[in-house]
Amino acid sequence: MKIATYNLRAGGRRGNRIHWQRMLEDVAPDILLMQETRHPSHYLEPAFYRANAKRIYWLAAPDRYWGSALYVRSGRLKPVTLPKYNGYVVAAEVSGSEWSRQTGRSLLVASLHVPSPYKRPMHELLDWFAALGSRRDLVLGGDFNLAVGQRHSGEPVPSDPPWLLQRLRREFNLMSCWQTVHPNQDLAQTLRWAGSPATPYHCDGIFVPAAWYRYLEECQVISDPSWHSLSDHNPVVATLSA
User: Fold this and answer.
1) How far is CA 140 from CA 41, 96, 204, in A?
2) Which residues contact 170 (CB under 8 A, 6 or more apart)?
3) What's the predicted TM-score (pTM) here?
């Protein structure tokens, strides 16, 4: 199973909205999590969108023309309504996929673009996920707007307080795909913030159950000039094999 997340930056530049098509063709994920995206029909070929509309879930963020979305290549997608932050975050239960058939459990998948002021909304979202219980395998991915990895003391950006990573590990038994695959390495840059484009901010990530450790093969941050012109975020892609 391949899981990918990508923030398009305010819907992507007009006239060059190839983000969805490129992710689907070049990365070919089984689960695709998108943030700051306009309605997917703006990016996808009409025939593809019509054929896959039931496997796509998108909501606009409040007072925005963009929002968050998720797509699954196979299985059934049942949207889940959040009590707050709908559109910044979308969530759905995914059942009937090849992965679910192998594990015997459905997935609860969320595409997150955590809104300001970040810490409080993140805590509220995690409280809500915790209240749902553990009958489904939780997959969280997207732009957390918070550091999603632990830094070494010698990295150029100071490490954030570990509360987020601790909650994800202790309460949900989730692991960061990127840091699990790349232990003891400096965090890869996922955001090229305009105010400091060289600073290696690492705020985009994918978290999956730690019980899947034996299945996790690779997690990469895609960074090359052909992607840089599309967004100030880099896609993150995790690959698991059962």
Assistant:
1) 24, 19, 11
2) none
3) 0.95
Mean pLDDT of the chain: 92
Q: Which two tokens stand for residue 77?
A: 């997608």
Q: Distance from CA of residue 16 to its chain's centroid?
A: 22
**Block residue for tokens 């070049």:** 26
CATH code linked to domain 2-240: 3.60.10.10
- Bin 240: left if φ > 0, else alpha if -120 < ψ < 50, else beta: beta
| Burial tier of 169 (Cβ tally within 10 Å: 0-12, 13-18, 19+) | middle
8 A C-beta contact, residue 188 and residue 182: yes
Indicate the pairing of strand 31-37 with strand 2-7. parallel
- Domain range list for the chain: 2-240
